[in-house]
Design goal:
The structure is a single chain. The chain is about 40% helix and about 15% strand. It is α/β, with parallel strands linked by helices and about 240 residues long. It has one domain: Spore Coat Polysaccharide Biosynthesis Protein SpsA, Chain A (Alpha-Beta Complex), CATH 3.90.550. The strands form 2 sheets. It has a 7-stranded mixed beta sheet with strand order 3-2-1-4-7-5-8, with helices on both faces. A two-stranded parallel sheet has the order 6-9. Strand 2, helix 2 and strand 3 form a beta-alpha-beta unit. The longest helix has 18 residues. The protein is globular. Bound molecules: guanosine-5'-triphosphate (GTP) and magnesium ion. The site of guanosine-5'-triphosphate (GTP) has 20 residues, from strand 1, strand 2 and helix 3. The site of magnesium ion has 5 residues, from loops.
Amino acid sequence: MNQGIVIIPTYNEIENIENIIREIFALDLGLDILIVDDNSPDKTHEKVRQLIDEQYTRRLHLIVREKKEGLGRAYIAGFKWALAHPKHYDFMIEMDADLSHNPKYLPRFTEEIKTHDLVIGSRYVKGGGATNWPLFRKAISYGGSLYSRILLGVSIKDITGGFKCFRREVLEAINLDNIITSGYAFQIEMNYKVTLKNFRIIEVPIIFEERVHGASKMTKKVFIEALGKVILLRRNKRKILKEG
Ligand SMILES: Nc1nc2c(ncn2[C@@H]2O[C@H](COP(=O)(O)OP(=O)(O)OP(=O)(O)O)[C@@H](O)[C@H]2O)c(=O)[nH]1
Ligand SMILES: [Mg+2]
């Protein structure tokens, strides 16, 4: 369980990208980083390219996609890239660029992944939480979680969180070409599919920190779309069990 890669999707994260990359490498956990940028108008990818050329030639990687397609699509591209890489990564970490996911939790992730298949950074277990979250966001997150957990019969408490670590076997077992969500519901779909395959899941507490720089991509439309996708996932249960 020694080779791991952190995959970070980015869209207009020019103010955050250098900090998050430097903080992760400073931990010295032997992790590589893959940035999956959807051709950000603010040129996030150019900053990444510069860091690769100047300092992190071997450990920092970049995929630039043509256009913005949601973080789910970006993760799928990143997972496929990492699974095919000759380094044979043992685990893949999902993380936001906006510093909401504090890198200080990464050592716990790399430890727990030795004995679990999926590690989830959780706001809703003892010791977890969120700072500076407006009540509206809290309600959306909690309500969305509860609704999805009940409808899908998933026992994961933080079903929408995006700070996670997968063993490669988990990503190999899920048919990435059959993922139907791309935005907010992507985490829910992945959790549902991991649960249906009976993998070992653990939630570890994290304090989610609200972004300071840049703009959130979460909108009402994204949220409502997600609620519909959850129903679709439930209807597709038999197909998912059969085809992944
Ligand atoms: N490549 C790519 N990355 C995206 C896209 N949408 C969001 N992201 C990235 O995904 C991560 C999470 O997005 P955020 O905008 O922070 O969304 P959020 O964390 O749900 O919302 P906030 O809590 O308000 O920040 C960030 O690193 C974004 O830059 C997208 O369409 N393509
Ligand atoms: Mg965020």
